[in-house]
């Protein structure tokens, strides 16, 4: 079998697995205290996430790069919930995607983070708004119930 076919088959299988195990609703309730995310932000963030982050962190927030962490599940709970949200937000806007931070504007970062939070169970509000600066994120807290 030509190597190209083997690669195609493997890719197809991986895609199938990704779909099969795909985006289930988060089973824990995650609350964002002291802040909110907007429904329009989440929708825009889904697009922007695919464009800018999915290449390493995966379309369904399950990492596809051995160095990049998942952005869902236990990794989310450990990495986002146990740390101040401001710290994670600051890290994203100053280091992600590696070497290309200049290409994303502040509102797009806010949308992407709103999308990641929503994916992990934070409810979006029609009039909600996730902010653009670490200072505004500082009073916010993620809590798992
Ligand atoms: C080219 C691959 C790549 C892309 C694209 C990328 N990341 Fe990452 N990301 C990484 C790697 C590697 C790490 C682990 C090393 C680190 O923490 O700096 C990481 C770590 C992270 C972390 C964990 C931070 C922590 O300390 O808990 C978050 C959150 C994150 N990325 C979000 C994003 C977001 C949001 C985007 C899109 C705007 C993005 N990344 C795009 C490779 C990538």
Automatic annotation (TrEMBL):
<feature type="signal peptide">
    <location>
        <begin position="1"/>
        <end position="25"/>
    </location>
</feature>
<dbReference type="GO" id="GO:0046872">
    <property type="term" value="F:metal ion binding"/>
</dbReference>
<dbReference type="GO" id="GO:0009055">
    <property type="term" value="F:electron transfer activity"/>
</dbReference>
<dbReference type="InterPro" id="IPR009056">
    <property type="entry name" value="Cyt_c-like_dom"/>
</dbReference>
<keyword id="KW-0408">Iron</keyword>
<keyword id="KW-0732">Signal</keyword>
<feature type="domain" description="Cytochrome c">
    <location>
        <begin position="40"/>
        <end position="120"/>
    </location>
</feature>
<keyword id="KW-0479">Metal-binding</keyword>
<keyword id="KW-0349">Heme</keyword>
<dbReference type="GO" id="GO:0020037">
    <property type="term" value="F:heme binding"/>
</dbReference>
<dbReference type="InterPro" id="IPR036909">
    <property type="entry name" value="Cyt_c-like_dom_sf"/>
</dbReference>
<dbReference type="Pfam" id="PF13442">
    <property type="entry name" value="Cytochrome_CBB3"/>
</dbReference>
<protein>
    <submittedName>
        <fullName>Cytochrome c</fullName>
    </submittedName>
</protein>
């Amino acid at each position: 079998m030509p190597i190209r076919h083997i690669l195609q088959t493997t890719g197809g299988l991986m895609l199938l697995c990704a779909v099969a195990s795909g985006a289930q609703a988060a089973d824990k309730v995650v609350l964002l205290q002291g802040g909110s995310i907007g429904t329009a932000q989440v929708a825009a963030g889904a697009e922007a996430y695919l464009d800018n982050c999915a290449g390493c962190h995966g379309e369904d927030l399950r990492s596809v790069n051995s160095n990049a962490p998942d952005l869902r599940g236990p990794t989310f709970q450990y990495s986002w919930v146990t740390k101040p949200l401001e710290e994670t937000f600051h890290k994203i806007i100053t280091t992600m995607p590696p070497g290309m931070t200049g290409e994303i504007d502040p509102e797009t970062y806010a949308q992407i983070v709103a999308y990641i939070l929503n994916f992990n169970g934070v409810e979006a509000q029609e009039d909600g708004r996730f902010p653009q600066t670490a200072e505004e994120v500082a009073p916010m807290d993620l809590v798992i119930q």
